[in-house]
Amino acid sequence: MSKGANTQVTARKVRLELGRVAAPGAPGVDAVALLLAADTGRVRSDADAVSRDRPAHASGSVRHEAAGTETDGPVEAVTVDLAAVEPGVEKVVLTAVPREGEPSALSWLRLRLVDAESGTEIAAYDSEDATVETALVLGELYRRQGAWKFRAVGQGYSSGPQGLAQDFGVTADALRLTAATATAAVPAPAAVPASPPAPAVTPPAAAPAPAQAAPATPVRLTKVTLTKESPSVSLTKAGGTSGAMRVNLSWQTRSQPKKEGWGAKLTRALGAPAALDLDLCALFELTDGRKGVVQALGNAFGSLQQPPYIHLDGDDRTGGTSGENLTINLDHRDSLRRVVIFVTVYEGARSFADLDATVTLRPEHGTPIEFSLGECTEPSTVCALALITNTGSDLVVQREARFLVPERGVSPQRTMDRAYGWGMDWTPGRK
Question: Where is the composition biased (Basic and acidic residues) (predicted)?
């Protein structure tokens, strides 16, 4: 399989086998499987990380097996009983972490997907281009319309376990396996029968790799961060050309600053309650000229499989870790002319003051795109998050982070409409 390719999986129980194509004498590699929740795309806790230190998931659906031996090197294996995977789990991702923290450990890896009951190979993917990466996502099993599929990912991290931890919500400690159970480095294959095996190499007890000493730019982006200086990205370049793209808004109230600013004074003066309910929304315009809005207000949740190909998953009243999620069907990207993703304060405050909010766009087949809103310095109740524009050959995501202040008697939705020239008629609605 090539990177990004996928295939249907009909077997009830499969094995993900991690071995080597070549690179004799390279340091050993550990396989860690992560079970990702459907609503967040992240683990629910460290218990969703399965490795040789934690060899069995509580559900019994995913198990780590002891290393075996192949001609080209040792094998780490993870068995997945697809029929037993909990309904709330959307993906099982297989990651590789080098035991000695050396980039060369991740070169020339091979991932084989095998029917665990018949032993038949379903798919194989060779990762041959790793260089500075110190952690790697090799492949993933994922649900699609009630069935399971497998995708070759090949996404590398130069930041090691920390990069994996940040993207998938697991702690770095769950990915740093205990040295006491680490096995020897991969021995070179004996070309001559009389050659003695290479001696075992024990990883140094405490020497952290000087990865941060190098002036590093990752070979492959593991996350795109949009900023004021670099506010846009092509979804094609980010790998997001098909499948579902989940847009997540999460928020929390900032801790009290040492010197109380304008926002804090306004919030305190207005007596805003601590619980803040934000609504994630989207204005859409299709290539056939139709326009509309997807939002919880008026129960306009949209649809993923028919126009507008945008669906709001639900109405979160608290923020926290999951926040609100909106999904865009990139399989119908040619039907989308432009989309403005925005957020309104529904209740709990009179502005975005003293609020930390993060927006993450996570294409199913591509690199996550993330940005923060920054500090609100005016009494705004509606904020444009991102503008997605169809250029004819691509979809481009533009970070907006634009706080708007509605005029007296004008709704946040109408304010957003005016700012972006949608030209729709609005009527009052309620949840």
Answer: 45-67
Which amino acid, one-letter code, is at 61?
S
- Domain co-membership, 232 together with 379: yes
Do 169 and 246 form a contact (C-beta atoms < 8 A)?
no
Domain for residue 190, yes or no? no
Of residues 327 and 210, more confidently modeled? 327
Question: Residue 179 CB: number of other CB atoms within 10 A?
Answer: 13
Beta-carbon count within 10 A of 304 CB: 16
Q: What is the CATH number of the domain that holds 108?
A: 2.60.60.30
Instruction: Give start and end residues of each alpha helix (H) in 120-226.
Output: 161-168, 172-175
Q: What is the reported pLDDT for 27?
A: 60
Cis peptide, bond prior to residue 428, ω within 30 of zero: no
Determine the Cα–Cα distance for residues 25 and 147; give it in Å rounded to an integer: 40
Q: What is the gyration radius of the CA atoms in the chain, in angstroms?
A: 24
Cβ-based burial of 274 (10 A; exposed 0-12, middle 13-18, buried ≥19): exposed
Confidence band, pLDDT 50/70/90 cuts, at residue 348: low
Average pLDDT, the chain: 77
C-alpha distances (whole Å) from 17 to each of 56, 66, 213, 415 are 16, 11, 33, 54
Q: How many CB atoms lie within 10 A of CB 215?
A: 5
